[in-house]
Design goal:
about 325 residues, alpha+beta, about 25% helix, globular, BPL/LPL catalytic domain-containing protein, BPL_LPL_catalytic, aa-tRNA-synth_II/BPL/LPL
Length: about 325
Amino acid sequence: EQTGRFLRWLRAQTNASDGVLRSAAGGLKVVWSGDEPPDPCEGQRVLHTDPPESFSEHFSLQTYRRHLQTQTLGRTVLYADVTSTTMDLLDGLMSQSPQETGLIAIAARQTQGKGRGGNAWLSPLGCAMFTLHLQLPVDSRLGQRIPFLQHLAALAVVESVRTLPGYEDVDLRLKWPNDIYYSNLMKLGGVLVNSTFIGQTFNLLIGCGFNVSNSNPTVCINDLVLQQNREHGRGLEPLTSAQLIARSVTLLERYVSEFQLRGPQALLPLYYRRWVHSGTRVRLWSEDGPEAEVVGLDENGFLQVMGDQGVVSVQPDGNSFDMLRNLVVTKTS
């Protein structure tokens, strides 16, 4: 139903423009079922609305659909083997397309992947990469606490593995504000949220990338699965990007719903079980800065620390957590 609504909108948008949807991200030439694929112009991408049953060796749509159990999120899939970023694929569509189409952009490789604070995100094959479109009323519980969304998305990725039977002990963790870690040792993923305010609604793009089967540049989830098999004599199967993206989106929709009903306390106990900071003593801003103890998240999703001046909150924008030196530091370009 959601995909059909999106396609009807797409046809209406392109009827008078020679089949090209124009946006800030460039031109998108739409090829409908039975049409001859065109030679795209420079800077133009081609969107096939009826892809073949097996269209990529790097992604299984069948696996994705089998593991996706959502009402809306992730139901309309835009897939590319290679793109600049999955954010770019949705950036020009989210403010124009009809509501509740569940748009998600998925890629096997990104050429210009972005992390938080303008950092580059390396995107080799084997890394699960997607951007999800979500709309939230401004006056809703989560709409009033948007910083929590990156925490919910990162938690959904961790739990996509740890709620699988047999995979509960795979040591995936959360690092404030938006990182996915192996124990407290190495980063293997992250979340980036961009928001646009239209009317009384937040249009949100949730970008996520995490290593599934690529051991470089750090470590991947299947490395941790192999470690479990080796150390505990198990026979756990390797996991796939399609499976874990679908499970992450399914859990995120559930977490958003629970947050809207009951607020932060609906998810904070689970979040604290998975994060790496409980009881950590840190230095603020520099190695000579004041010492403080990490307390938790405040009601807005900001980090709370207890120091000589009492409990203070640290906003994620412009700050990060240096695990090697136990520092909450100001990000610099």
